[in-house]
Amino acid sequence: MKRKYFFFDIDGTLTERISRVMVPSAEEAVRKLTEAGHFVSICTGRAFYKAEPFRAAHGFTNMVCNGGHGIMIDGKLVENSPLPFEKALAVYRQATLLGYGVLTAIDDSEKVYTRDFKFYDQCGIRQEPTTYIIDEHFDPEKAGVIYKMYVSIPRSEEGRLTLMDTLGHMRFVEDYLMFQPDEKKDGIFRMLELAGGSAEDVVVFGDDTNDMVMFDERFYKVAMGNGNEELKKMADFVAPRNVDDGIMRTCEEHGWFQKVE
What we know:
The protein has 261 residues and is α/β, with parallel strands linked by helices.
């Protein structure tokens, strides 16, 4: 068996989406792949601070995180880049001029900064742990760095934010739009450079629309049976649902537990 380079999304792929607990058979499959001599990595849109507890708890030594802007190899974080600053600042300026509330993360943490309570008034609190810092004098231009932004713009009004497509963005909840790195594939390629791997030996596992970006035609692409239908159409193989031992059964069917020669 030639060495493969496996990249696994977390939410909905390695974990049961509601409980966020890693599927036991998926954990066993990852262990068996590692013991067979393959390169195994997480590949997630989560910020480093959010992905790191999961990585450490489950013994992964390699991780692409922060939507491709964060790289950890052999347990060492070698990269964790923010959004392109000028583009992010332009989106921030446009959103605030249009009257939308904006929460801005200027470091890799749960802290977000805002000038007022506009975001809360327009769509309530974020649906994950957050530390809010209200500072009427806050200006991201002075901070000089933006890791993420959350804009309280309804889906029906997205056309007003004409700079929206200049940055990676997604809407996991209806009430607000999240701007964060969306370059998982680029992160995989940077990881391959560090690990000495080749694109034709890559296997990616994903389940949702934000995984489309890592479904490169040069990779072997596995979509989970519980995943997005559009993603399944892009896949080389559709696995059973993750909670139905989808990762384990797929690895067994492809013979990936054989020892690397």
